[in-house]
Amino acid sequence: MSLRPSRMLLALVLCVLLAGCSSSSGGAGPAAPARTATGATAEAVAPTGTSGLPTVRAADLPPEARKTLDLIARGGPYPYAKDGAVFSDFERILPREPRGYYREYTVRTPGERDRGARRIVAGRGGEIYWTDDHYETFREVITDEN
Predict the structure, then answer these.
(1) What is the pLDDT of residues 98-120, one digit of tens each?
(2) Quick one: where's region Disordered (predicted)?
(3) One of 104, 112, 140, 145 is an active-site residue; which one?
(4) How many beta carbons lie within 10 A of that of residue 45, not counting itself?
């Protein structure tokens, strides 16, 4: 009896298992729960926001993102020429709105010489979205006003 078919089957099973593991742990999954001062994990405010997207509390964003939120609230001045430009949502991830509804703002990435991948996208209705992977995924930002 030849062992070759058994080895082929084993190799195929391993490939399927590895492919399943890598696709289920992609960068789009939820972030690990934050730890509180006592060491306990804090659950997210809500698994999804009003948009149906995952959420992140404004207080849990990187400091550079919080600074950008402050600039947006003040109306600028913005450090990048493209800040405040219309965001068209070609990826069709955000809730569908007419062109011009969303505006994008750069969030500085330490160590990057260009604009980097991090952005805040703000809707005319006051909704705010965060992406740290150049529009591949978004999370709805939950602020104290929400």
Answers:
(1) 999 999 999 999 988 888 899 99
(2) 28-60
(3) 104
(4) 13
